[in-house]
Amino acid sequence: MLKDIMKKVTVSAPGKLMLLGEHAVVYGRPCIVTAVGQRIRAMVELTDQPVFELNAPDVAVVHYQKPMSELGKGDLPKGAKFMEVAIKNFGVRRGVKVTTASEFSSQFGFGSSSASTVCVIKALSELTNKKLSDKQIFDLSYKTVLDIQGKGSGFDVAAATFGGTLYFVTGGKVIKPLNIKSLPLIVGYSGIKVDTVTLVNEVLEKAKKYPAVIEHIYDAIGRLVELAKKAILQSDWATLGELMNFNEGYLASLGVEGPKLAGMIYGAREAGAYGAKLSGAGIGDCMLTLTPAKAKKAVEQAIEKAGGQVIDVKANVEGAKVESSD
Ligand code: MEV
Description:
The chain has helices at 81-90, 112-127, 134-149, 155-162, 196-209, 211-233, 237-253, 259-270, 296-305; strands at residues 8-20, 30-47, 51-56, 61-67, 95-102, 165-169, 174-177, 185-189, 275-279, 286-290, 309-311, 321-325. The chain is of the alpha+beta class. It folds into two domains: 8-180 and 316-325, Ribosomal Protein S5, domain 2, CATH 3.30.230; 185-311, 2-Layer Sandwich (Alpha-Beta Plaits), CATH 3.30.70.890. It is globular.
C-alpha cells in the first residue's frame, strides 16, 4: 500500500542571541551563539495551483500572492522576501502556502527572518520527502540569507537550525554544539532598532581605514571566544562574565556600543553582574548579562533604570523541529 503523502506541516525554529564574537565572526573568527525560547512557527502546505501564498500577520503580510515562476523577481516586501527566496532556492514544482506566527517581536533582533527561512526549508524538506540533513538545511537557508542581505556570518541560521549553544565559525565552517544544561542570562532590550548590514558596513569602513588595528581587534575577539568556550563548558560564569566585559571593550572600540546600551551594560555590572555586553550588531537591540542569583533583582532594576526592558527569554533551547503534520 502506498504511504499517505504529507500535505501540510508545521515547523518551529528558535530565535538567537549572540553571546560573544559578533562582527569579528563576519571576518573568519569564531563566535558563540545560543538559541532562545521564543520561536517562529510556519505552517507550510503544497498546493495544486502554481502560486506562492503567504500570511504572516506578525509582520503585517496578509494574503500575499505571487506566481511560482515569478519568485524572487520584482519588488519583494520586507516581510515576505526571505520565505519567497527560500522557496525559490529549494526548487518546488507545485504551489506553496505559508502561514507564520511568532512568539517574539521582530523588533528584538532575535533573528526572525533567519528563523522563518529555516522553518520553510525544513518544512519543504519534509513535504517533498527530501530528508535534508541539518547541515543541508543550514546551507540552503544561509544561501537564502546571503542572496538577500549579501552579508552575514550565518550564526543566526545555525542557531535556528541546530539550537542549543554553538561555537560557530563564519559560514558554518565549524558548527560545534557546546553541551551545557543552562545559561543564567538576563537579557535587556534597548528599544532601539538598528540595521545590521548598515553597522557591519560601518565597521568595514573602519577596517579599511585602520586595517592593522582592526585585524588585531578581531584576533583578540577570536582568542577570547576560545577562552569563553572553555568557561562555558565548565559553567565557569565568573570567567565568562569577565570575558564578556573584554569583548564589550573591543566592540566599543569598533564604534558599536552606543550610549543606551552602555548605560544598561555598565548599570548591570555595578549592580553585581559577573559581566555584561551588547549582543548582535550593537547600538540597539539587546544586551545580556551573566549574574549571580543573589544579584538578579538588582541587575534587572539597573537595566530598567537605564531605560531598558528586561525580557524573559530561555537560552540554550531546541533547534528547528516539526510540530505537527497531516
Ligand atoms: C549581528 O547580529 C551579528 C554580526 O556579527 C553580523 C553577523 O554575524 O552576521 C554583526
